[in-house]
Amino acid sequence: MGRPTDVSQAASVVPDGVTIFDTTLRDGEQSPGISLDAREKVEIAEQLARLQVDVIEAGFSAASPGDFDAVKAVAEIVGNAPRAAQGPGGSQGESDHREPPVIAALARAIPADIEAAAKSLAPARRHRIHTFLSTSDIHRRYMLQASEDEILAQAVRAIELARTFTDDVEFSPQDATRTDFPFLVDIVAAAVEAGATTVNIPDTVGYALPHDFGGWIAELHRRIPDIAAKDVVISVHCHNDLGLAVANSLEAVRNGARQIEVAVNGIGERAGNCSLEEVVMAIRTRADLLGVDHALHTPELTRTSRLVSSLTGYSVQKNKPVVGANAFAHESGIHQHGVLADRLTYEIIRSEDVGADGSQIVLGKHSGRHAFFKAVEDLGFELDEAEAQNAFRRFKDLADRKGIVSSEDVAAIVIAETHVKADDDYELVSLAVTGGTDAEPSATVVVRLAGADVAAEAGRDVGATVTAEASGDGMVDAACGAIRRAVGRDGVALVSFQVAAVTGGIDALGEVTVTVAVEDGQRFTGRGVSTDIVEASARAYVDALNRSRRLVHRSSEFRP
Ligand SMILES: CC(=O)SCCNC(=O)CCNC(=O)[C@H](O)C(C)(C)COP(=O)(O)OP(=O)(O)OC[C@H]1O[C@@H](n2cnc3c(N)ncnc32)[C@H](O)[C@@H]1OP(=O)(O)O
Ligand SMILES: CC(C)C(=O)C(=O)O
To answer: What reaction gets catalysed by this protein (predicted)?
Structure first.
């Protein structure tokens, strides 16, 4: 272990290459509810080509006329468009163009499917027929009613037929990880002998455990020397039923597999497939241990994930590795302090390497002073010590009630606090209200007598608190009545009241502006901000009373 790998350096080492075979458009599309038409498949395939995946499995040509047409469209358009070669950091040589991706289609081990695949793939410059047949006892008995010998013979026939259309043929013994290992060895050896150029070992039901799966991959290489002799690529196709698809794929690579089948956002049958973005970033990030690389231009990952999400309707969970909204977000104070000092303290991937927006400091109840005052500074505010303390206290109060505190919230807090000066006479300490359709609205407030004059007038020490209750026409009226009672100013009347949302969402900060007429008829306006409109009203009311007191101070100071 050591410092996180710089992806751009890792990629320049040119280690052993792993082929990235993307099956978003085939197995990914098998997710319940997803049906992509030809236009959508071409759009995703074009993005996969920008991402520089090596093989795009565009569909299952025999599944429907629509899928046949979609595979054909991908073969025609994406299968003939050279990809601009891009370095891991996004560099792009002008004349440096790579072949179009290989376009693949899946076919059962029957002539009709193989012929349909061949026909739909024909327009692509490079194409692969991927044929499969179940080998496990369970599948053979319940789905195919076929003996091992029959399966082996059918697989060989299918591969040989596929080879008449292309010299790039992949064979998958379906449900390989629940197949008797000696039979798996036999059928893989027969597939290699029959001309398969890639043999894929599918963990069809996500049953494998990493160490065991890795052992099988190593053992296949050991027992079948022709895999190496004929340059046959051993591939893996891992499902995620136990959440192990990425781990199993990596362990397979550590044991000699050189193709990984993946789907963007990990979509696919049931719990999905090995997630493309996770496995390719694991390979780049831990190149120090894996010693392999792939050709992907990873800054396209986020864009690819978003495109697939929007065209499939499958949203990406916030905490999804690499492409989730929170992949580079930090909410807790200790982490934020670290990341503000150096992102390496809590990030192992550079956000720009996956095309994300950068580290995000998200303010919430776990945030601390470093992050809060950085947000204040970014907004251009300068606070003195007292203002800073008050603003931070208000921020924590707000964060307790609101999941995420936005920069607009911070601005509102700071603006509200910076005019609460040391010469404020009253401070609202707490407010409790009750009410409802059948109960009379009532409020209890606690107000601190912060000014020497008001404390003296009330016969109390400076800083003493006064508790008062009142009922009213509504909760705001009751709160204002209780404040009047607490400060002993029954002659103050509420003249106008306006409320506006400062930020969006159901937990938005509300801003209340009130105008009060004081005892001698003069009017003062006050402002209050809170997620709770009654609290914002009470703060606005106290603010207006403080402003009226400031005028008293100023006029007495300047009295001749
Ligand atoms: C693990 C995987 O992801 S495998 C790929 C799964 N993907 C799909 O199935 C999507 C596309 N599939 C389809 O559109 C349809 O299932 C079709 C067009 C392929 C076949 O449809 P139907 O002919 O109506 O058959 P149905 O789907 O009900 O049953 C599957 C048939 O294929 C046979 N079969 C299943 N796998 C294979 C195989 N690898 N090779 C040959 N035959 C197979 C079954 O034995 C069954 O045959 P039967 O009809 O003689 O009993
Ligand atoms: C056809 C094979 C590769 C497959 O999708 C699986 O076994 O899951």
So the answer is: 3-methyl-2-oxobutanoate + acetyl-CoA + H2O = (2S)-2-isopropylmalate + CoA + H(+)
Tokens at 331, concatenated: 């909410």
CATH number attached to the domain at 422-557 = 3.30.160.270
Rg, Å, the chain Cα set: 34
pLDDT of residue 558: 35
Decide if 203 contacts 213 (C-beta within 8 A): yes
Fold of 329-415: Recoverin; domain 1 (1.10.238)
C-beta of residue 61 within 8 angstroms of C-beta of residue 117: yes
The span from the CA of 318 to the CA of 275, in Å, is 15
Picking from 397, 468, 472, 405, the residue whose alpha carbon sits closest to that of residue 434 is: 472
- Which residue's alpha carbon is at the smallest distance from atom 16 of ligand 1? 63
186 is in an annotated binding site: no
Q: Which residues line ligand 2 (CB under 6 A)?
A: 27, 106, 132, 172, 174, 200, 202, 204, 237, 239
Q: Tell me, what's the pLDDT at 74?
A: 98
Axis-axis angle for helices 385-401, 407-418 (nearest 10): 140
Question: What are the residue ranges of CATH 3.20.20.70 in the chain?
Answer: 10-312
Please write the tens of the pLDDT for every residue from 37-77.
999 999 999 999 999 999 999 999 999 999 999 999 999 99
Question: Does 211 count as an annotated binding residue?
Answer: no
Buried b (16+ CB within 10 A) or exposed e, 494-507: beebeeeebbeeee
pTM of structure = 0.81
Residue from 110, 177, 239 whose mutation best tests the ligand 2 pocket (most atoms within 8 A of CB): 239
- What pLDDT shows up at residue 553? 54
Q: Where are the beta strands (DSSP E) in 152-277?
A: 169-174, 198-203, 233-238, 259-262
- Give the residue range(s) of CATH 3.30.160.270 domains in the chain: 422-557
Given the structure tokens 């209890």, which residue do they identify?
Answer: 444
- For 182, other C-beta atoms within 10 Å of its C-beta total 9
Distance 178 CA to ligand 2 centre (A): 13
| CB within 8 Å of 100: residues ≥ 6 apart | 49, 78, 79, 80, 81, 82, 83, 124, 125, 126
Residue that is written with structure tokens 């272990």 in the block = 1
Confidence (pLDDT) at 521? 84
132 lines ligand 1 (CB under 6 A): yes
What pLDDT shows up at residue 82?
A: 85
Separation between Cα atoms, residue 92 and residue 84, nearest integer Å: 7
**Paired sense of beta strands 426-434 and 442-449, if any:** antiparallel
**273 annotated to a ligand binding site:** yes
Q: Where in the chain is the domain with CATH 1.10.238?
A: 329-415
Q: What is the DSSP string of 317-379?
A: PTT-TTTSTTTTEE-SHHHHHHHHH-GGGT-SS-GGGGT----EE-BSTT--HHHHHHHHHHT
Region 10-312: CATH code: 3.20.20.70
Mutate to test the pocket of ligand 2, among 29, 134, 237 (most ligand atoms within 8 A of CB): 237
Q: How many Å apart are CA 544 and CA 323, to the nearest integer?
A: 48
Name residues of the chain where pLDDT drops below 50: 1-14, 88-95, 554-560
